[in-house]
Amino acid sequence: MLRNVRTTAARLRVGDQFPQLKLTGISEESIALPDPSGRLTHVQFRRFAGCPICNLHLRSITERLDEISAAGVREVVVFHSTPAELRRYEDDLPFSVVGDPDKELYRRFGVEASARAILTPGAWRALPAGWWHAIVAAITKRRALLPAKPTNGNLGLPADFLIDGDGRVAAAKYGEHAYDQWSVDELVALTRNRENA
User: Fold this and answer.
1) Confidence band (pLDDT; 50, 70, 90) for 130?
2) C-alpha angle with apex 159: 154 to 160, nearest 5 degrees?
3) Does residue 116 fall inside a structural domain?
4) 144 lies in some domain
């Protein structure tokens, strides 16, 4: 859920000032951006609740969350789904998850949708493992395999932003296909590069 978010489409660039936002996570927690304590924040824009490609990536984030936290980074993940959908599929993620079913944040920061999200071979390499984990989660967590009609469809593209404690965009990536995002290694390297600068 969003509070007081004005929508103007523009891609973020390194050095831009990230706006101060108050978001509400799917657990009803308040999320301030940038981080009030001055930590770095990795804001991820993913696709839809239950997306097997997104969840494969988020699994890698979860598995190495201690390393990410040790690098001084807080994770916030935005989906273009409703909070109710997200609670069905993403309620066990160990970081803040935000539903943006009206795509206000997506429009504001120029995060797009395109058929190339799933028609690019780069996205296909994630599908076998993504489907396998989706099947396992459906069985072990007794949830639907995939949403039949995800809110805003399945053509969303991902985006990643690393936001300084002072609100400056330290790094930005707009994905070219559904599995085009920073790996954990790339994220941690970005924090090291900042320290060495």
Assistant:
1) low
2) 145
3) yes
4) yes
Whether residue 110 contacts residue 70, with contact meaning beta carbons closer than 8 Å, is answered with no
Calculate the CA 144 to chain-centre distance.
21
pLDDT single digits (tens) 32-80: 999 999 999 999 999 999 888 888 899 999 999 999 999 999 999 999 9
> Per the structure block, which two tokens stand in for 67?
């390393």
What is the length of the chain?
A: 197
Angle at CA of residue 137, ends 136 and 143, nearest 5°: 125
CB 43 within 8 A of CB 173: no
Arithmetic mean of pLDDT, 6-32: 88
Q: What is the dihedral of CA 70, 196, 34, 59, to 10 degrees?
A: -40
CATH of residue 162: 3.40.30.10
